[in-house]
Amino acid sequence: MNALSEPPSPAETSWRILPQGDRCLIVSFGDRIDAAVGRTCLAAAARLRDARLPGVTDVVPSFVAVAVHYRPGAHGGPTYAQLAERIGQLLAEGIRADASGGREVDIPVCYGGEHGPDLDEVARAAGLTPEGVIELHSQPRSMVFMLGFAPGHAYLGVHDEKLNIPRRPSPRTAVPAGAVAVANRQTVIYPNRLPGGWNIIGATPLTMFDPAREPAALLQPSDSVRFVPITPEEFDRIREAGR
């Protein structure tokens, strides 16, 4: 499947609004992760932010849904029923996503070796050579669906079915910053040293999250990313130049 497929038109878009505790509701656009649904979530989130609905404190898109956090009626905000009705009205007016997406960003990646300790294992699971995994991972562009788990922690996809590899049975307690890892047809890039159970196939020398930078996160939802294979020597040179 093409990760940059066309988004649905407003007439094709459907959603469900569900309570999530007493201070949040979820607008669900389905249960299938693909670029069209992801762009719909991003467009809906932007529509809701622009509306500046009274009582709403945050709007957070994910792969297939948008979380709307709000102050409940007892604290001066709307009731769940009131907010759900208003959100339904706004979405019914149209939420067509922008097919062009966000920025196009190249991310250099040194695959395998010390930077990608799981590359050979992923290749065996996918029925490919390590070079085949690198080609499959780096040739098409990947969409940034969301940031989560940690500041600047990007989730990208959707990759070829051959990369539908499960997470590791035992997570690592510490994954280095810049690690590029795959699981379930998706990629994550660790912005700093974190625990994680994804399969590490490479690493980027770029700084994914820097609080002193604006914006702090290198990647943003809707960005289109091309992974560019580099040598260990190029990895060291880029990292040194960035210090």
Structure in a nutshell:
GO terms for molecular function: 5-oxoprolinase (ATP-hydrolyzing) activity. The relative contact order is 0.16. The protein has 243 residues and is of the alpha+beta class.
Description of the molecule:
The chain is α+β, with helices and mostly antiparallel strands and 243 residues long. It has helices at residues 35-51, 80-92, 119-126, 130-138, 232-241, and strands at 16-19, 24-28, 56-61, 65-70, 104-111, 142-147, 154-157, 172-175, 179-183, 186-189, 194-196, 199-203, 224-229. A hairpin with a 3-residue loop joins strand 3 (56-61) and strand 4 (65-70). It is elongated, with a radius of gyration of 19 Å. Residues 15-219 form the Carboxyltransferase domain. GO terms for molecular function: 5-oxoprolinase (ATP-hydrolyzing) activity.
Percent helix: 10-25%
Gyration radius, rounded: 19 Å
Task: Specify the overall morphology.
Answer: elongated
What is the topology, as strand order, of the major beta sheet? 5-12-9-10-7-6-13
Give the termini distance in whole angstroms. Answer: 38 Å
Unreliable residue runs: 1-11
Strand content: 25-35%
Q: What is the average of the pLDDT values? A: 91
Count of helices? 5
Largest sheet: number of strands, sense, barrel closure: 7 strands, mixed, barrel
Helix and strand content put the structural class at alpha+beta
What's the number of extended β-strand segments? Answer: 13
Oligomeric form: single chain
Order of helices and strands: EEHEEHEHHEEEEEEEEH
